[in-house]
């Protein structure tokens, strides 16, 4: 709650103004029944028209001020609530940008999307209710009851019975409802996950004619959410009949006892009329409070989920005095062990000792799950090691400023991503200041110029979201060109040429040797042809180094490399090479 309220920032003034205006509105409304009683007792019963006119004008003035203060309170409430939601979204988004991969894995993408949309909308609505209704209703309740005490103490005590009954029942409903809503928003995550997965993979769904299966899966998630909401809303529906029981009890009791007091001479007709007005005001205040309880019940689960993201601290942080320069592309792994869940005992990498010279080209090969991607993710510090240390340029990667390190260790990840915008916009992710000629040169090195030149708008061709209008191989080459624009000291290709033919793959490797000879190049691949020209080849098996030597030596000494070579070359060649 504290973390969420802190996001008010510049909207604290609007919040306090809303509370002030709501309080003044209540004062104006509370005075109206009191003046009505005066008009009845002194004006109507005494046939005193000047009194009626005088107090009638006063009622009109008070009603006007009540309207003005109410409108102002609504305006300030809307400003404060909208501002709070805007600040929450910005704060959550900014905090997510600092998250490491492990932080993202903890929440999941659909879970973060739900927090930034549904949860924040719930908090916005609840906050508007709280600063407007939850201020107005209690004040109205308290002031109305004080006026009742002024009019008749004995009749006023009767109202405490109804209030105590309502407070008890509403409290029980709120406690149970909060537990249900906690589970409701977990179902929202499941629903968003189903939608996101289906839409992002819609081409695969259609290719395999799985629309029916996906519809069934979504319907199941939607039905779960429906059942939880029915349960929660069904419980909250009890607030209205409970409220009406209290209202009718007060009206019947007041009518019966009030009539006796009037006959006995201890209460006037005007006072009884005022009491009816005040009791209805109190009951309406309690009704509004019950609505606030509903909103708070829903929003408390959202506040907790939002707070989790705001309080989450990134696993990776810059040191106190970071190193701001990477001297060269030398890489050393000294006794490195790593697991995605620290302390789980299931290592993705174990006892890795590697020493790579600056400017070397290193091939990395191994079976699925052997730890290839995990290895290169440690070089640019996307994760931290459990044991040992990774050095780049002779310095532990944990001592670098992370932005400096990642600008000099350029990675083309296994999953290539392009963003909406032109080809040039996407290329300049690597270097925002790159000229068009520098972008063209990088594309030539990545063999991307071949297909860009055939496009109608060339480098100004628009890329659809996620690169939907380019092929997998074209997307890979654009991502390689984007990485080259950073002019890094270390270039890592994580299976980034898997979708291009072997001829183009060979051209890219030849261009690397010619254009960036001083850059350390690490090429992860599934094809022997992609790595056989490397200075040395690393063979990984179940997270351990199985071999690290030249192509020729590995063919003589390493059983795993021999097996891969035999299956690819003697077994029929690569997919686009003749046997």
Q: What keyword list fits this structure?
A:
579 residues, alpha/beta, six-stranded mixed β-sheet, 20 helices, disordered C terminus
Structure explained in plain terms:
- With 579 residues, this protein is α/β, with parallel strands linked by helices.
- It contains 20 helices and 12 strands.
- The protein has helices at residues 2-5, 12-44, 49-98, 101-107, 109-151, 153-200, 202-207, 211-236, 239-264, 269-311, 372-379, 402-408, 423-427, 436-445, 449-452, 472-484, 502-515, 528-531, 551-557, 559-570, and strands at residues 331-338, 349-356, 361-366, 387-392, 395-396, 409-412, 421-422, 462-463, 490-494, 520-524, 536-541, 544-549.
- It has a 6-stranded mixed β-sheet, sandwiched between helices. Strands 2-1-4-5 form a 4-stranded antiparallel β-sheet, with helices on one face.
- A hairpin with a 2-residue loop joins β11 and β12.
- The longest helix has 50 residues, at 49-98.
- The two termini are 66 Å apart.
